[in-house]
Amino acid sequence: MPDPGNQRSDLLPLASEVWWYGSVDGQGVEVPSERERSSEEDGCRTGFGHGDSQGVLQGKLVDPERRRRTVKEVRRRLGPDRVSERKACRVLGQPRSTQRYESRKPSQDEALLKEMRRITHRRPRFGCPRVYDELTKRGWQVNRKRVHRLWKQEHMQIARKQQKRRRLPGHSGNGCIRHRPMHKDHVWSYDFLTDRTEDGRQLKLLAVIDEYTRESLAIEVGRSFTAPKVVDVLRYLFALRGRPQHVRSDNGPEFVSRVVRRWLDQAEVGPLFIAKGSPWENGYIESFNARIRDELLNRELFLSVTEAQWVIDRWRNDYNHHRPHSSLNYQTPAAFAAVCTDSIRPTASFHQHRRITGNCIT
């Protein structure tokens, strides 16, 4: 074991390093100077501090509790088996009686602190004066100075720079994060896109996808769509592929109409309506819409509905059978769907590239 008498050289630099540990408001560890300065040396100093060529010295730790924490931190860093409490207290100028003192007075501030924390939890940007005002409104007969003392003691000061909180995308149970597709034909999504022909007339596209396999099941083109026409598209897909368990959509009038909802109920398919004004909750179809707009609609000029339907059908065939999809380990949606079974139902990741194993052969 090293000689404790040689550890003063370790304690002093470390005390300077951890001066902040015991003081969050800029006060530092008091370190005894080696000798007193002469008046001549004081007259030649470069700044306001003593013994510092930069003119800056750390302040004193006048709070006993802060000094206790500083002594404990110094011992923790150097090792309790190497530095005794007696040695650390002597070097750092802390009386041992103060270091070992434990208050026997029962705390009378627990209820008040609990109420202050309740207020600051609900109003995190309230300062001490506003918290005091809230306390008085709630019937607390308490001195303003007492509230301020507890405020400082518990370090409840408000940070000037706030850290923005990242929330889970979406806030309803029908969103694509909280209600994920678990297998093929578990959840379908549909949505509308708009474009224009060369003569300026509107084109409306109804896109339907399987969220798990990322297949584009249909892209119907027309000048407008009504609820019965949406039902016709779904009826055709159900007859061709089978019905899904759920269909996710926004709250557009064509999707929330009684005609569509009654037909889905008869087909025993559960609609999943996302929260209003939250398109990110329908993330799979929104991602698909971004792809078709970037790769096709922004590059093509359509002369008629018939031409648009023909071009879009060719793009949909290429998307399903030739275009690799990053979320499917760069497989095509058709290839991924062909090797997936319903016996085991893993979850396909929406955000990460993942190698598909288990019930899907790669």
Provide structural commentary.
This protein has 362 residues and is of the alpha/beta class. It folds into 3 domains: 4-99, no CATH class; 110-153; 187-338, Nucleotidyltransferase, domain 5 (2-Layer Sandwich). The chain has helices at 8-17, 39-43, 64-78, 85-92, 96-99, 110-122, 128-137, 144-153, 227-241, 253-256, 258-266, 283-297, 305-321, 333-338; strands spanning 187-196, 202-210, 216-222, 246-249, 270-273. It has a 5-stranded mixed sheet with strand order 3-2-1-4-5, sandwiched between helices. Helix 1 packs across helix 3 (64-78). It is elongated. Mean pLDDT is 78; it is low at 20-36, 38-57 and 342-362.
Number of helices: 14
Order of helices and strands: HHHHHHHHEEEHEHHEHHH
Calculate the mean pLDDT score and round it.
78
Largest sheet: 5 strands, mixed
Task: Tell me what portion of residues adopts beta-strand conformation.
Answer: 5-15%
Question: Key features?
Answer:
single chain; 362 residues; alpha/beta; Nucleotidyltransferase, domain 5; 3 domains; 14 helices
